[in-house]
Amino acid sequence: MLFRDAFKTSTRSLMRGKMRSVLTMLGIVIGIASVIILMSIGQSAQDLILGQVQSIGSNLIIVIPGAPSNGRFSSPASAQGIVITSLQERDVNALEREPSVDMAVPEVRGQGSAVYGNNNVNINFTGSTADFFAVSNLGKVSKGQTFSKADVDSGNHVVVIGPDLANTLFGANVNPIDKIIHIKNVSFRVVGVLEKGGTGAFGVDIGNIVVMPISVAQKQLLGITYYNVIVIQANPSYDINFAKSRITFALRQDHGITDPKKDDFTIQTQADILSILGSITSILTLFLAAIASISLVVGGIGIMNIMLVSVTERTREIGLRKAVGATNNDILQQFLIESVLLTLVGGIVGVTVGAIFVGLTYVVLSTFFSIGWVFAFPISSVILSMVVSGIAGIAFGIYPARQAALKNPIDALRYE
Amino acid sequence: MIEVSNLKKEYVEEETPTQALRGVTFSIEKGEFVSIMGPSGSGKSTLLHILSFLDRPTGGSYKFQGKGIDEMDDQELAQVRNKDMGFVFQSFNLLSRLTVYDNVEIPLLYSDISPSKRKKTIEEAVKSVGLEEKLYTEAGKLSGGQKQRVAIARALVVDPNVIFADEPTGNLDSESGYQVMEILEALNKKGRTVVLVTHETQTAEYADRIIRIKDGIVESDKKIIAVRDRGAQSLK
Questions:
Q1: How many CA within 13 A on the CB side of residue A71?
Q2: Which terminus of chain A faces fewer neighbouring Cβ atoms within 10 Å, N or C?
Q3: CB distance A5–B109 less than 8 Å?
Q4: CATH code of the domain in which B173 resides
Q5: Cβ neighbours of A326 in B, within 8 Å
Q6: Does B54 contact A409 at a Cβ distance shorter than 8 Å?
Q7: pLDDT tens by residue, A85-129
Q8: Cα(A374)–Cα(A311) distance, rounded to whole angstroms?
Q9: Contact, B128 vs B86, CB < 8 A?
Q10: Are B4 and B52 in contact (CB under 8 A)?
Q11: What percent of chain B has pLDDT over 70?
């Protein structure tokens, strides 16, 4: 039997039961649409997260205390909440002498409550130098100004806050500049309010940020002498990996380390972070797609079920076709084409439904929510979906098709 | 053309064997019109199914055009059914949602006749049974007699050497039955072998030979003067 004839015969059979064909396809449509939607949304989330990391600049290097972890995805000890005091002021001084380093900005972090009048808000605060704002791309203030190097050197009790916090503490109609707030019972004068800007690098909530001179944060609020992190802006005329090796060398010298295995600090470039985050988000996307593919399997079983019913209903037709010369392969081919057609058409509809949903998600998220949602519709997911649809058609169609092909012609003709 | 010798068929249902054919021997020459008669359960339909390659015997031998059924696999049997045999069933076995044209086309789908020659072949076959005006009518909308004529056209379309008809008038009124038998008779006149299974004597007498089967064996095998040769007008 010519493939053309088999295709025509199969198409006619499916068209004879349009409603049944559509309902049978529904399982595959939902399965494929789920895969497309989850893969696209996963890709969008990945692009969003990676975009935020990229926004900190490719020449940024982060130094955190504690030895590098062995596992690719396990975080250094300091990031797990273990107090490590290896990063000190002398390290910043040593790094600033290094020609490949433009700026070395230490940071300390803590939690507490900010109080103004009767308003009391829980906050996360950051103590840093005046360069913090330049390094973190947070230089724009809507009111006042950022604090200066002199404020840091003199240990002035000044603070720069985010616009949402300003609104919560002072209300919309009060100018926060020069107002005094209390953080952990220490008074601070508000010198600047940052511009509204959504979420900053690494998901920092700019709206509620509180930044003060590092000297004050260390001595008055935290009672520590070490740093939680040093953010380095590398000199752009140096290769980033060269700068990384120079920083490593400088810190080892400063800490008297000769055995590289005994490093008490971890250095990460943007590329390192991107690589790790990229891997994590890819795994998450695949995980989501794997969950979605369960519905694809359910859809496939639905097709197998309906095909089996169809084979039973058309037993006499199979008998007749065999009586007038159809071979087992002809019958197998006809039913296999039917199931593959069902899954392929289901796949195309599923991709279309998925694309519409992904587009609507983008429109809604970018219109009504001020998060920088990225539109992503990976072609790989479309190709994967179509290949999976075709394979599902064969995998779930082969059993019913074989059942049809192996029927004895005379038994099939006598079937009531 | 057809040689059967000591042909046996045994069915086993629920561990109980049933002998449908218990040693049947005869031969049919090319161009003969043979009726196989017998009461219900005599084994006549089983015999026709084996003769038409729809079933295999469990004993004895059967040669069709000199080649034994045992020498052929399922694929070869399908090819012989397609090229050399035409089938007419009591219950027509048409696909009711397809048109007359599409029903008659079915055997051609499995033949080596090229798609470009099909249309003419189908039109000629349908014309030969007098249904050219119903070519694109759905088979389900035809009368019983018309349906059986479509079935005959479907049997003829591959120009077979032999036509097997299993109770072709069984579901028809006498007028339609008469028309169908006239067509089969005309086909035989043109040289085609016709093997007919029936339990109706009047229908059987269109043939020039009647093989009577009873309890799975040949009870009698007689040449007769066919109705057409008796000068009888018809059974009308």
A1: 5
A2: C
A3: yes
A4: 3.40.50.300
A5: 78, 109-110
A6: yes
A7: 888 888 888 898 989 999 999 999 999 999 998 889 999 999 999
A8: 47
A9: no
A10: no
A11: 96
For chain A, the structural domain boundaries read 3-53+282-414, 85-263
Please compute the mean of the pLDDT values over residues A286-306 and round it to a whole number.
84
CA angle at B53 for the pair B50 and B55, rounded to the nearest 5°: 55
**Does residue A18 sit at the B interface (CB-CB below 8 Å)?**
no
For residue B184, give both structure tokens: 């089969």
Note whether A7 contacts B: Cβ–Cβ < 8 A: no
Closest CA to B32 of B215, B172, B137, B184: B184
Give the model's pLDDT for residue A217. 93
Mutate to test the interface with B, among A8, A318, A324 (most CBs of B within 10 A): A324
Kind of pairing, strands B85-88 and B67-68? unpaired
Poorest-pLDDT segment among A257-271, A328-342, B123-137, B190-204: A257-271
Asked if pLDDT for residue B236 goes beyond 70, the answer is no
The pTM (predicted TM-score) of the whole model is: 0.71
On whether the CB atoms of residues B28 and B2 are closer than 8 A, the answer is yes
Beta bridge partners of A121: A114
For A196, list phi and psi in degrees, rounded to 5.
-65, 130
Specify the pLDDT at position B40: 87
Q: Domain count for chain B, please give it.
A: 1
Nearest to B198 by CA among B154, B180, B61: B180
User: What confidence tier does B235 reach under pLDDT thresholds 50, 70, 90?
Assistant: very low
**Which amino acid is it at A301?**
I
- Cross-chain Cβ contact B83/A325 below 8 Å: yes
Matching residue, tokens 């339990």: B199
H helix or E strand, kind and range, residue A44: helix A18-54
Average pLDDT over residues A396-400: 91
DSSP single-letter state for residue A348: H
Residue B30 sits in which domain range? Answer: 2-230
| The pLDDT of residue B233 is above 50 | no
Of B66, B140, B75, B138, nearest in space to B110 by CA: B75
B184 lies in some domain: yes
Locate A282 and state its tokens. 């890819």
pLDDT of residue B200: 87
Give the number of other CB atoms < 10 A from CB of residue A262.
10
Please answer whether residues A201 and A132 qualify as being in contact, where contact means their C-beta atoms are separated by less than 8 angstroms: no
